[in-house]
Amino acid sequence: MPPIHGDAGGQFLALNRDKRSLVLDLKKPAGRDVFLRLCDSCDVVVEGFRPGVMARLGLSWDVLHPRNPRLVLVSVTGYGQDGPLASRAGHDLDYVALAGVLGLWRRAGEPPAVPGVQLADLVGGGVWGALGAVAALCARERTGVGRHVDVSMTEGALALLIPELGAFVESRDEPRQGSGIIRGGNANYQVYETADGQALAVGALEPKFFAALSAALGRPFDSGDIPAPPARQAAIRAELQASFRTKTRAEWERLFTAHDACVEPVLSLAELPAHPQHAARQVFFVLDDPQRGPLRQTRTPFGRPDGHTPPPASGEHTTEVLLQAGYTADEIAALRRAGVIG
Across 118-273, where does the E strand assignment appear? Predict the structure, then answer.
């Protein structure tokens, strides 16, 4: 995607606030030495090379650990540090396919749909990588020793299937989109179109919520409808769909404020900031960047909307970081002349 603020695109600006940027050529021996010196005082190093690259650079765990026994190294790869696919190239779609997650998006007679978000990258690698780093730091507090955390994005995505795998061991039924209680097989856990072409998500799994939904729609409630067989589910879905097409999404939203029925609007990205819940919790905020101007940002689930620093330009903090690491101004100038740093 082209940059939207001169030097950076929207995804970069969304992901890199509160960070500092140092540019270092690890293929140069002097760059390797700088990296090792920085690692001497680091808590965590995160790398996303294919297995073996850190070793070829002279920066493997066997090199880093003796220098700084408290260091935690988190290696995030597609398939893990070993196994027959360790060195194979891949992207998110490949990882979720091999993890079995993509298969859940398959309807009978159709190929699986491409997921709308990068599940293996963001959850399988990002969330599990962060959790692995935190766990290793907690263990270090007890033992005084760091560890190498091997995170496979494929296995991180596969871990999302643990409940499904437990059910599969018991039933031996392969889950498919459009079947089962939570994959679209039941009328009370479904997405319905409204009169204006928008959609509502109905998550009325429990009887009390399905009863509330039925009351809001003015239809009789029968607790037997929840475990009803597929043919009956299809009939109820058609009935509910006909009802939901009689009003716009906004009209249904107003109606359901008086009914605790687990019904919410399906929002577009453009609609998210204005939703009252997100606005009340300051999920979206504006970060003032002196160089780029106001930047729309999204906070993390446990973050705050204040006290943030703008995303850095490439190499913006190289000098600052090296000075903190004990380098002199003359040493930094020499490294820059040699093309080791940027």
Answer: 148-152, 189-193, 199-203, 263-265
pTM of the entire predicted model? 0.91
Which domain CATH number covers 258? 3.30.1540.10
Does residue 7 belong to any structural domain of this protein? yes
CB 155 within 8 A of CB 82: no
Residues 6+ apart with CB under 8 A from 101: 115, 119, 120, 157, 158, 160, 161
- The angle formed by the CA atoms of residues 62, 65 and 66, to the nearest 5 degrees, is 90
pLDDT digits (tens, 9 = 90+) for 126-173: 999 999 999 999 999 999 999 999 999 999 999 999 988 888 887 777
| Residues marked as catalytic | 91, 121
- Based on the fold, state whether residues 133 and 109 are members of the same structural domain: yes
3-state helix, strand, coil in the chain (%, to 5): 45, 10, 45
Residue 139, classified by CB atoms within 10 Å of its CB into exposed (0-12), middle (13-18) or buried (19+), is middle
